[in-house]
Amino acid sequence: MVLKLYAAPQSTASLRVAQVLHENNVPFEFIPIDLRAKEQKQAQHTEKNPFGQVPYIDDDGFVLYESRAIGRYIALKYAGQGTAGLIPDQSDIKALALFEQAASSEFANFEVHAAKIAYEKLFKVRLGFPTNEEVVKGAIDQLNVKLDVYEGILAKQGYLAGRELTLADLYHIPFGTRLYRAGLGDLIDSRPNVAKWFNALLARPSWVAIKDGITSTA
What we know:
Layout: E1 3-7, H1 12-23, E2 28-32, H2 43-46, E3 56-59, E4 62-65, H3 67-77, H4 93-126, H5 133-156, H6 167-170, H7 173-181, H8 186-189, H9 192-202, H10 205-208
Parallel strand pairs: 1-2
Antiparallel strand pairs: 1-3, 3-4
Helix pairs in contact: 1-3, 4-5, 4-7, 5-9
């Protein structure tokens, strides 16, 4: 059976999973979930994802939610096709540890701050609520500190976990692109090594295929 992705076409978590599917050349059927209609809160959805969120996958009866977990599952199950090494070989404990370090950094040092900016300057504005500029300033200040560290890391190596692309790099794209939408792309562009790294990620066919919305490939 073809893997099914239950997701919203432009949600950051949904895009994260769709990109990994493309990187690993995994055909999938996209089942769109209408967030505005709160389809994710309906019983048939919460039976699969009890948190009432997107995305989740159904891989021949195996149901999994949480985008980072799904990405890891796909990268491991389909390691023999598409982009190799999105998760280092389990036998290389040092490479695996460096990957986990980079993956933790993506969540704790990048997304936690970028998400606040996206929420305040994009999501709340779309709903007609005022932006809390104090929250935005705090998140920008934190990102400036964190991305200075990224600049140093990427001055020494091509990717966050070393010389090879991993999920830890790809996972930056959804909220990284939201920074540009919020008019704060200079957080990335002002740092040459970060900008080179991020622009290379954006040029990957896997992102180009989904950046305007997710569609089925099977």
